[in-house]
Amino acid sequence: CLNDICSSVGDSDGDGDGGLEGSNSVRPLVHRQLDDVRKSLQTVAVTVFFLTLIITASRFGLDCFSVDGPILLHIPFLAALGVLPILEPLFIFMLEIFGTSRILAAICQHTTLSCLPEEQKQIVADDRWLVLRFALNVFHARFVSEVKRVHDQQIPSSELPTHQPWGYLFKSPFFHTVTNGQHVEIPPTNLCVLEKLGVTTALALIDDELVCEDHSTPQQLLVPSSHGLKLLDLCPTTVDGDDLYDDDEEIYGASRKRSSSVNSLSHAEDDSDSDRSNSLRPASSHVHLSNGAVRSLRRKFLDIRRRLAHKSDDSLRSQKESEIEVVRYDNEVQFEDPIWWKFLPSLKAIGLACLLVNTTKDDDEADVNIQNSGDSRELLDVASNALIPHICVSQKRDQLNLLAHCIGFSRDHRDIDCFSERRRMHIVSTHLLQNRLTIDAHALGLEEGRGRGLLRPDSTSVIVKDSRSGSHQLLTVGEASVVAELCGDSWQGENSTIMPLSQADRRSIIDASNNWKLADLDVAVFSYAPVPHTSEERIEKKNEIEAITLIDNRMAIDGETSVKDSGLDWTLVNNQIFLGMLGSSISPRKEVKSLLYDCDEAGVRFVYFSPRNMRRTKELASQMGIDVGWNCAISLRDLNEGEVDDHRMPSTYADWDVNAKLPHGINEVRRHLEDVDNVPLLVCLFTDVTSETTADMVRIFRLYGDTVTTVGLVHGTRNQNIFKSADLAIGIDLVENIFTRNSEGRNELLESDIKFASSIAANSCAFRVKGEPTIGQLPDIIAIGRASLAACYSGSVFVATGGLSLSMLVLFAPCSVSYCVPIVPPLGAVLYLLILLPCLGISMVFTDAEEESMHRVPPKNENNIVFSPQERRNLYIHMFVRSCLPSLGASVLYLIALGEIFIAMESSLTVKWTDCESNSWSDIIRCADVQDYNGQAREFASALMLGEVALCVTITSAGYLFRTRLFTSENLWRKNNIWTINLFFSLALVIIYLALSLNREAFDALPWYYYLLSLLWPFVCLGVGERLKVLECRREARADMLRRLQFETRLGMWSPK
After folding, report:
1. Which of 3, 171, 523, 809 is deepest in the core (most CB within 10 A)?
2. Residue 73 pLDDT > 60, yes or no?
3. Whole-prediction pTM value?
């Protein structure tokens, strides 16, 4: 496995776009929008430069080269400096660092904290500087590491690691408290995590282990009765069922079906959608509820689970016990038939077999013996005897314990204390083994797929001794075909009668088993037999528990095998009594059910890639909440012309792809998208997939504008090509849990080997986390990605508008009605551009998400569209209006300040100038003699003008925090306390700048209405900006409504009219 992983790393390292395919790679929408804004700002800068130069030259003529010439000549350059994209790239670089750091900090809090002890959780959770420390480490990974790579030419850049641990810079014990848990790695720049995570339009789950529970849940039980084979349905139990179903009792009761006889349906069609074969379908497929009822029941279930899951106890041990109780509640089952107790004599024997067979001893303590049937070869040698228990792993079926508890047996297994195991016998049928090895992977069920590659017995028999009577009993659980062949009678517990098991009954059992397997049910058949007294003595001679493997080497002829006894152990397992047959289905994880609902609300298309065929996947998809009606699934397995697919469901009822004329295979999907419609892009379920077809389908999604985030396992090479094909990939590491669950002391790997393999396989992943709970936290990760992207967008628009305000101020300067043109202080302009705007803009990155952010449909990343209709025009108009208002107000206030300060401080000049004898500021500014004035009044008035612009920009920054909500509708301190602190810092900076630029006499010279206007004008600008935001909200609401309509529709050319 490690060799395969290492050999495939070179392909992913050399990719230039984070492992993406170059032909299908489309730049993120944010990048193309930034390019458009940058080009527009360049055009504005050139325009403002020449306009300012022309206006200055036309107004002052040759006086530009006089004493005031150098002062006037720098005005055009200062006007262009405000909008030239010189400082913006550095600012955007810092926005990307803080936005990415915010995402990483959120992932750390969602994943890492769950892996830490309780006392360390509180330390990390209370750390308010987590984002800052992430930002420092991201800066190190983005800048310092890149500089080092440039100077270090010994190692090619493609061979350098693309991930940087976030605890690299910090060596303090506090920081190691976090990194010793599950650390979060810094994604490389070319993955564009910030730009893509917030606009994810498709979330693809590509592994069954992430979707399904670890064990099956009993669904149907088949027992012999006086009227044939009786079918008993099982359903999940509920907590406080009276309160839970008071409102929906009528709906819930109507959904139940009476148990029916299998004999009357033994010749039913194989189609699981047929009305005539509904008795052999899983129990959950009987329920037909309306969408409103289903959502109501789902909400009630989720509310109860949340209340149980969020109960806090005094110790970590009690918390774990409460979590165990929640799991037990989720998996408990009960019989639907109210008179199921009539079959208790049969059910007791089945429950006893479940507990005794499923309770195993340590294989190392058991003696191993192998016997053959139907073959005259000698026994295997000692090496082969040691190999058999190494590769033959008995299957642990938790559903058997659930069934036993449903029947009435206790959880602690006290009911079987009187039984002691004496011998365990496994039967391996070479005929069935060859069939499993030759069958296509898409035809396997979930449980069969998990056991693929392992030699598991086809049936397991256990001989137990009853301490009460001293008798021995043999109980068997196994495959239908194997156990049915071993049975000659059947136990009808309803009337306590043993009846012969006819060939027709045996065929009905096998047919029912095949139909259940087509519906992706795991089938287990139960039987028992009393052990003869002659065999009891031979069994009791050995003091230790003996484990025996019986190998059936007989080949099938015409579909049937002849019974042939060979050896004493084969005599024990033959002539058993049939008890019943259980069908169990694997349920989806509770995290997946809520994930699908959250994705639908957020406008993110949930896509599930299943390696199994349609018939096996349908029931699981229905339980997940995926629509299985029309245009719901596509098979990615190529079907040649004229070829019949046994798993395509050829009926006319609820057909998935025949009536809907959906494509079958990647090539047909491409032709369908080009020639027919876009229905393949609206489908949520793809079946019969492989790693190659999954990667091709992900590329198709991206080619048609979707931003795809794939979620898969990282302990194998099969997902690496899929991760490379997606925009973003999130790798989940479950390998430690899987080996802990399945190894049982054998086939163990070193922890270092597991980490090494997972890290290499996750080379193309943006994040790599551990544990199943991460699946349920994916909507929260997407939400923080949207919030970070929206905050960065608002910050960049604010900085661009603030720079444009300075350019407009400089442009309005030579257009002033005063003969004394204002001169923008260069030092103040530098402080404005380098300190004030960046501080406010970067602080906006920490704004929390709007309440409606996860209820909007994100736009698609179509290559030919940069802005949605009217978005570009509205953006530039709003930026222009917002930038002009502060400049206009400051220019007017400059006239008042110039006149009043000139009268107060330059009264001697008014005596010399005959045209300036009036004491009114309006007459002073129109005095022709003031044109050559360059004293303190001009400097102080210009400083006040720039301070007013800074004050307006600072106050109006509140309107940029939320793109589609008024700032008055939110608590600014709770949404962004860092911006609130920076707001007061910026106001203090403006005050300090004015205090250092002006003296006391200048402040005293200003009239009261100047202060009133200077304080009111910023709020006027803020109000105008909010009014423009209302218009933008209306446009965005219409655009979101259109995107929602496109997202929810599944109609195509062949859809029902």
Report:
1. 809
2. yes
3. 0.79
